[in-house]
Amino acid sequence: MKNLYFAPGDDDEHRLPLDPPGTRGESQSDSFFADHIEHQMFYGPMKKLADELFNAGPLKDPGEGLVRLQKIQKMYSMLDAASSVIMADSVELVAQVFAEDAVAKPYLESEQERRERLSANYYAVDRASDQIITSNFIAEAAIALRVTSEKARARMFTAKGLRHVCPQTLLALAAGQITPSAARSIVKNSQDLSTEQIELMEHQLLPVAATASDDTISQRARRFHDRSSPEAASARHEKAADARKVTSWDMEDGMGAIKLVAPIVNVRSILNTLDYEASQHKDPEDTRTKAQLMADIFCDALINGWPTTNGTPLKPRVVLTIPALQMLANPKYGMADLEGYGPIPLGAAMQVAKDAPSIIPMLTDPFSGAVMDVGRKRYKPTRVLKEFLRARDQHCCYPGCRRTADNSEVDHVEAWETGGHTNRENTELLCKQHQMFKHALGWRVTNRPDGSKCWRTPHGLNSLVIPGSVENVERFEHVHNRCPERRVASPADLRRVLGIPDLGDGDLSIRVERPAGMQGS
Hints:
The protein has 521 residues and is mainly α. The chain contains 18 helices and 12 strands. A hairpin with a 6-residue loop joins β6 and β7 (371-374).
């Protein structure tokens, strides 16, 4: 059974037989008449199918329900084909603009464009390169599609493959004859093949893909690729070994996973070692399963060191935010926040915190969770500001980026050279990549009165980013561009914030005091 967590993500468009950017004829207009015909080819059948589903009326028969499911599946294929064409053609249009402006632009640029050009030199990036153009557009597409940049990059790989390398697969997809998964398998296995070999693969697989399952097409495409690849098996193994790596991802309930990609001999040796060490554990009072023992031995060996060693000298830095009100009022149901992961049970957080070498007091808004200020026990202002941003933002403030505070730096929203101040209102955490996006690739960010930030992409999309410490956006006023209104807390409000069940009057006694002269109830 295929595990999606372990699906390889090593697709590379440079392994496809693509023409240079700016010369890919499929994405360039031949004539208004030809463009109109292509538009009808991609959207006409989709419109007809949508009309049929709309006009069919309410469902009354199970057999008709299956027919409608088939039509909906065809629409998924048609939509996938249309989105692939849009992505491939859009990024090609950007490349054409850079190619046409290469000579005239330096003499006509504005002051902002001049600063971006100088920033690009600082970051050592060529804004007209295919890699930078594609990466920048993928970041915009990720915002438009509301997916991660990694998923948008995977879709761009498939889009370019369908549009420029596998035209017959694109036509079959647009007609609803094959599924999006089958199309992706054909594009994926077109890597390292010649144009003639890809045409032969399409000729052999597309008739089968019209009725076969997605797994069948994936297996057939992989077999065709392995038979057709000019590389020997040993050469493919050496290339694969160069891609060895360790990655991780977050899971639910305070858990995480590590993936090791390494030669199979090493992987088997690690597993055999863990299996042997677990089998030598003979404590009759230990109720752990063998799988739990292997996991614990693995963690102990890497963190504390294998027996007879002193362990790793790299002590982990773990940052926890523990809400004091929840800790005092509702410790059973309270949640703390682990930097780079998210909420974990308060009990687990307290277990970590009891051995913490330092504790920094934070002032938070009890209704939104936003960090408002930081204790000033450290006398260096720059250090205090960093700790404040670390607690308020928690990670890179670019839309969708989850790089931790340790992998981000303090960045001015309004540039220092144009009058921006180094204070909490004009600073944010940004990773290196997204600093480059902001300073060199035409992205803009604006502070909003309620503490959120609005990012604007080079081609005009807007995306709102709320500080990572904010949990309740009920009173955020980013739509009206004004500061959020605050009102006096009632017992019901505090119950809701603290997660305490409403047990009726008298279960919570709270006294709210106001400064002398303050009006209102």
